[in-house]
Amino acid sequence: MALTRTNHSGEKPLIKNPAIIVVNFLLVGIVVLFLSFSYGYFAFKNEKWLDFRLPRVFWISAMLVVAISVVMRNMIKYYDADKHIKLRRNILVALVLAIGFVICQFIGWQNMQQQGMLIDTTTGASYVYLLTGLHAIHILVGIIFLSVATYRIFHNTRNQVNALIYFSDPLHRSRIKMMATYWHTIDALWIYLFLAFLYNHT
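The structure assignment produced for this chain is given below.
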C-alpha cells in the first residue's frame, strides 16, 4: 500500500545534496577514461584483430545492462509513488542482474582463452581484456552501491512509520537518483564498448 507524503516528486527538493555535483564530475571522469582507452583501441587497429570472435555471452551482458537501466528507472518511479514493496523488489532484481553481468564477463574471458586469445596474444585481445576488465571493476563498485542501498531501503521501510519518514526525506531520493545516474552511465559505456567490439570482432 502506498504511503502519502507532503514532498511530492513534482516539487523542488527541500535539500540540495552537494554530493550530486561530485558524482557528476566523477562520472565525467569515468567517461573520459573509457573514451581515452577506446581511442587507443581504434588507433592501433591492425589485421590481427580479426583472429578471434567476440564471445556470444557478451550479448547477454548487453541485455543485462539494458535491464538494469530499466529497473533503476522504475526505482525512482516507485519511490515517488511511495511503493516500498516494489522498490524493494526492484533493487533486489538490479542486484541480481549486476552479479549476473560480472559472471558473464568471466565466462567471456574464459571463452577468449579457449580461442587462444590471451591478454598478450594480440593488441586487439589486450584492449578487449583491458576495457572489459576496467568496466567490470566499475560494475563491482556499482554492486557495492546497490548493496548499501538495499540495506537502507529494507531497513527504512520495515514498518509504515519508518517508511513514511523515508519517503518524506528528499535526501533518500537524491541517493537513489545518484545511484541510477551512475548505473545509466556505466550501462551506456558497456553498450558503446560492445558495439565497438562487435564491429571489430565478428
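Interim note for the steering committee: The radius of gyration is 20 Å. Confidence is low (pLDDT under 50) at residues 1-15.
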